[in-house]
Amino acid sequence: MRCLLSLFVLLMGLFATVNSYAADAPQPALTTEDSSGPQVVQPIEFPHDRHAGLRNPSDPTNSDPLKGGMEIDCMYCHTYARRSAVAGIPTLQKCIGCHQSIESVRNKPRIQELFKYWDAKKPVPWKKVHDMPDFVRFNHERHIKRFVEQQNRPTQEACGYCHGDVKQMTVARRSKGLTMGWCANCHQKDHPVTAAGGTPVGNQAYWYSFQKPVAGTAGGEVKAQDTNNIKAQGPNDCWQCHK
Amino acid sequence: MIDSGLDRRDFLKVLGWGGAAAALSGCGNTSIEDGKETVVSYVEAADYAIPGIGVYYNSTCAQCDAGCSINGRVREGRVLKLEGNPASAINRGKTCGLGQAGVQHHYNPDRVREPMLRKGDKFETITWDKAYALIAEKLNGAKGEEVAFLSGGVSGHLKVLLGNYLASIGCKNHYVYEALAPAVARAANKKAYGIEMPRFNINKAKVVLSFGADFLGSWVSPVHFSQQYAQFRKGVDGQRGVLIQVESKMTLTGANADRWVPVRPGTEGILALGIINELGMASGDIAAAVKGYDRIRVSKETGVPPGQIDKIAALLKLRSPSLVLAGSAAEGYAHGSQNAAAINLLNHVLGNVGKTIEASSSVTFTQMAPAKGNTAALKSLNDGLAAGKYKVLFSYAANPVFTAPGALKFKDNLAKADFKVSFAHYLDETALQADLVLPLDSALEDWNTQVPEYMAEGAQINIQQPLMEKLHANTRGMGDILLALVKQRRAEEYKSFDDYYAYLRAAMLQNKGALGGGGADDDTFWNDTLTKGIVKLAGSSGALSGKASVVGLTLPAPSAADAQYPLHLIPGVTASLRDGRHANQPWLQESPDPLTTIVWDSWVEIHPKKAAELGIKEGDILEVTSRSGSIKAQAYLFPGIHPDAISVPLGRGHDALGRYAKGYGANPFQILDAVFDQETGELAMHETRVKVSKTGQCVIVVKDEGSAGGKQMGRKIAVSMSTDEVDLSKEV
Q: What ipTM was predicted for this assembly?
């Protein structure tokens, strides 16, 4: 009994090991490639393009939904992104706040559906489109601070780094990889792993040992004391995302 | 127990392979799941509610009576974590493990959710209106003296409202029962110092001599004392304080002591008098009374070597002020009050009264002062029930079917009451016997005020407020229930209060001036009070009035050996489980006992010498038999216990309460004899004598300490040494 049980568990383990070697390279690859997620069916087909899309110059009254958007800033609705780690979903109150005074679309089926939820005081059960694994903690606030507030980049560009060109979508769809290799691709550019600029220490080596340091202090060589003395900070610290 | 033969070592090896495999397959693009989970937004959100950002509210911990103020983190409408409120003088921003587990009380899956009425052997769900009507109907058929109300310790506005309700139904039988309250200490302190609960300044003492007071673990206000203890160890004038603990079973405090003195159970008072005699500082009556207690006699009676008594006396003489504490282990005997009096006398002789023992402040609103729980109340209730005096019995915050000594036959007597109403969080043993069970809000959903028995600095009233919305629609706050019930009788008087919150607010605002809110408008005062969670008062500070007196102090000779039941049973009080009311919080079950590191089960602590004598080894299932019954539990060889005693921890061994409590361990309350302290009538918890016998079964003790099964596989990792081989006096 004992042998059988051990053998079974062991074999399952080995099987999984071999399987994972075959399926995935042990080293996560850096990638900038787009990789689209599945088309997600939402309870209300929210048209991002109509809300955030660019105005049509030949249609100043913005009357034709097929030809232009309203250039609403992402953060008008996703208001929590600049204040919290999570972007949150806009409150139903926010939708109603505008739509109760937009008579022209009041009788459209999607808006009627929206008001049904509001009258019942029930939240809309949206489906998550960008769902990170539970061991990953992405901080929206930090990225907005950096790109929008410090570097004055347009909101749609900053959000778009990870969320893609939402202003052209109806229902949002994931268009970036959002794997660790994908994240690190940007971070390698702006926070290169050098002895001078923050050589990873401790557990970080697990990830960064896959990547060669770009340049060392002297003659491209990384000295032992450098690696020991320099503490990695910010995005090079594993703990920032894996808390 | 593992039957398959796959032992822990093999299991870990195999698991290691599996784990490595899982880790490897975890790298790469595997875990992004789009469009599967639902993300729910607020319909309407308050400005301060930001997803991902916590909001903090102050409230009061309800896990024990110490009255620590807590600060709860609430995110997305859910309470996640409790910490201490730094503004409270009692706990100064800290909490204990028991307090941390408060969230598991709130989210517990076994909470009662609907009012339930007994139908034969089963309960059926009824509405609140029906339940209230039923109570009114039953009370109409009973006279005031035929109604009894059993509760745990209550204080604040809830106590006032409860008193008013009982007055409205003409009931004078309010029994306040706490299984582990320091009731003998209260009486002894009242005699010695003039107040029941003076302020103990451990931090100002240079030596603390504690007779079985586990002040770091479970005695009175452990979080407060732990902080005092830290200061005491840093020392007054740079001199590190010395802690001496006298007890028959090592507690958490005993394990921290510089000198742990095992004493023959019940002879603590004799040792105290022996120390007074050895000090030679007393005069007059006292000197005459202790004259007979010379070191040789005392040593013979207590089992403490004369050299130890010398050292203790010398240390107390050398370093002043000191502090002598009498705890439940010294007081749990038929002569418990005498023991406590002898120990308190030491403080007088050493001149500690007024220095390390000071008058405490009390809240000027005496009607809000705590109704203090004790075990004498249980006895009179039990006698009343046995005589068939009561037709209607209410019970709240007490579980006597579990905690009453088996010898009282409480469960049988309870059946003699016609209609039993239980206000319950869980279907515990007492609620299961009830005819009507009314579900309560958790402590994190309910409104209340609380006045702690032990005041750390000035007096304070603690505010308990909801940290989040109710989890279950049909639970009610105890205050709301009492208000609804009192309205049945005095509708006119209480008609202006829609709910308990309105009552509480009005009552507080009425005394705004006295509560320190003079000048502020109502809303400002109220919001300020809720924000702080504590109302600090100047309070009235009574003076210490007791005198050193030996009048009536007579200690019996050490009890003779009992041939049939040779061992003393010491019910162990652990810091996390106490009397067992929170045993259904898995964090408490899984946190290892600090001394034995055992989890999820009960054990019998037995001295290695005694075990060798009886042929007992670790893991043997022992049957512990007293005159009142027997229980079975695994043996644990423990050098920190007197060889003439065994100890079984309290709190486990439930046969109801919930999935994490039911069926784990054994309940030593069941086998306690009904012996009472002669002076106060309190239950003498340590008077039970037992015998142990092996059942022949043996298990592997599940504990953190040592390697699996207590075997070292031939390796000498750590050499164990029994306490009598260690000369602790060298360490001091």
A: 0.70
